[in-house]
Write a structure and sequence with these properties.
With 101 residues, the protein is of the alpha+beta class. The protein contains two helices and five strands; from the N terminus they run αβββββα.
Amino acid sequence: MKTNRIFHPGLLEDLFYDGYQQHRCGNPTCTGKLRFDQEAETQWGFGWRECLKCDKCPYKSTVRALYEETPLVAGCGRRHAKINLSIQVGLLDTGMGNTGL
């Protein structure tokens, strides 16, 4: 993984805490490390959805959004990531476009 990413600290802590607890309960003798599963990650603008996997056993956590989401408005579809909306609002007040970011 050679990219810079923006994560919500509380959501990242929850992902690792819950993943560690589930991994230890399901396989208490495993000595593997939990790492991001690069095959299961998805990017949503500036936000990321990640899950953890063990490097020694087949454990894999559920995929979680590591960004805050806006409340769902009428209609269907995916909720907006707050970080994406914040950047769009910021670009409204600046002279540069998306390519200059």
